[in-house]
Amino acid sequence: MGRGKTRALKKKITSITATSHITRAMEMVARAKFNKIQKYAFAFRPYAERYEEMAKNVLSDISGVEDVLLNPTKGKKVGIFLITGDMGLCGSYNTNVVQLVEDQISRLRQSFAGLVIVGAKGDLYFKYHRTRVLKSYVKEYDYPNMNIAHTISEELIDKMKKGTFDKVVAVYTKFKSMLVNLPKVEQFIPIPLKEKKGMKTWEYEFEPSSAELIKNFLPRYLAVKMCSMLFEAKMSEFAARQTAMRNATDNAMKMIKDLTLRFNKERQAYITQEIIEITTSAEAINK
Q: What is the model's pTM?
């Protein structure tokens, strides 16, 4: 009986040790990917911030300009744009944004017009639950770039112009730190034009007309905003995966320590039992 217990414990220790090697390797891969994308994202942030500032100045006076990307329509068809990961093993990263979308759908009810999804996890989940998914981008990129951002934003713009959506809200995860990433909902289209108090506004003379300039400017602005959201989401994903794999490795090492202690106790008990049986048998023979 004792030998069977020690054999089972040894098998468990071997299995968990192999798992810890995998989780440690995945943590290292996630760390390397996070460091790489963080460099790209932090370099992109100043550009996105200046583009945002320029957009607020240019769009501060749009009287007479009619564009579906600026002016809210009277319709109530709301589309949801969701960013998830293509892979799991990243803690609650995917679950948090999926839950946020479900809350939005419950709140919108009949106003919900459909989903546009980036990431295999969100795509699989909502298709399995028979939610209306109009477009999915699965395993389209390793790191965000303006090409993929432009493609996705053009898809949303096209659905706005065709009347599929009257409004688009984005659900994604904003990176705060390695341990804190915040799922959030924000309006994407029509472009919010809230002015900050004390913000300088500028008067522009447009050549060609303001309508023509804005028509070409808005898609570019939305692509920059889209790229920024993709960077934030991807950084959050890699940070969450790194943390999850580190925790998994730590838990595995703790289990190995506990199982090794149990293994040593069982082996000692077995050896002691064997010695007692041998001693007893020798005494019986001598008698």
A: 0.84
